[in-house]
Amino acid sequence: MQKTGKMQTDNCLQLPKYAIIVAGGKGLRMGGEIPKQFRPISGHPVLMHTLEAFYRYDPEIRIILVLPEEHQNYWNDLCLQYRFTLKHRVVTGGPTRFHSVKNGLDTLPDNGLVAVHDGVRPLVSEKVIDNAFEEAKRSGAVIPVIEVTDSLRELTSDGKSKSVPRNLYRSVQTPQVFKTALLKEAYNQPFCDCFTDDASVVEATGKEVKLIKGNAENIKITTPKDLLLAEMLLSHV
Where is this site: Transition state stabilizer (predicted)? Predict the structure, then answer.
């Protein structure tokens, strides 16, 4: 998408932008042998739609795609098959998401802003990406969230449960965007099972993470039902 006016001028003044797309899942909940990030929807594999979302936002963004080594030849074959030529760099993932993100970060300079995004979230909006980068430029660390609409219950230590006020909770999405130096410093700490996303890694260093509004369509594809929903949503984009 061509940028014009103020947004185009602002982009010229911004720090270099990077996006680390993490696609290490084997898709066990999806069933079958093809990992979910490679499943076709609306004419292309999920992962290609995800990369395209970031290029629509900014054709100059530098994308690092983190893949398991055993998936890389298959990805190269898909790029040939679908004539997918968007520029990106492939980096080998690690044993966990933490290590995969760290491997991607190790390829980047300290100066800049970096988004970390799930490869199976192809429906992130350009507005959310832009708002996340703009807030990260100001505050250093930002994540998109959406309000919880279902009622919630907390499991208690006595094997029971209790109702909790859902207005106090938010569902977290990606991309999570940070000043690159800040995120690299956070990922220098030892791995912990308590790290559920990049924000939790950053918060473990004592840094505050800002919240912005996400987009409800930005679902994470993990089941066949999600795949059908994403197909329907993409057909209306």
Answer: 29, 36
| Burial of 233: CB neighbours in 10 Å, binned 0-12, 13-18, 19+ | middle
Rounded Cα distance, 119 and 71, in Å: 13
Query: pTM of the entire structure?
Result: 0.91
Per the DSSP assignment, residues forming a β-bridge with 25 are: none
For 93-111, how does the pLDDT look when each residue is reduced to its tens digit (9 = 90+)?
A: 999 999 999 999 999 999 9
Query: What is the per-residue pLDDT across 125-143, written as a single tens digit (0 to 9) for each?
Result: 999 999 999 999 999 999 9
Do β-strands 62-67 and 89-92 pair in parallel, antiparallel, or remain unpaired? parallel
Range of the domain at 151: 5-234
Distance CA 177, CA 180 (A): 9
CA 74/CA 170 separation, integer angstroms = 36
Q: What is the CATH number of the domain that holds 15?
A: 3.90.550.10
- Do the Cβ atoms of 31 and 224 come closer than 8 Å? yes
Q: Is 37 helix (H, G, I), strand (E, B) or coil?
A: helix
**Residue 44 corresponds to which tokens in the numbers above?**
């292309």
Alpha-helical (H) ranges within 28-157 are 46-57, 69-81, 97-105, 126-139
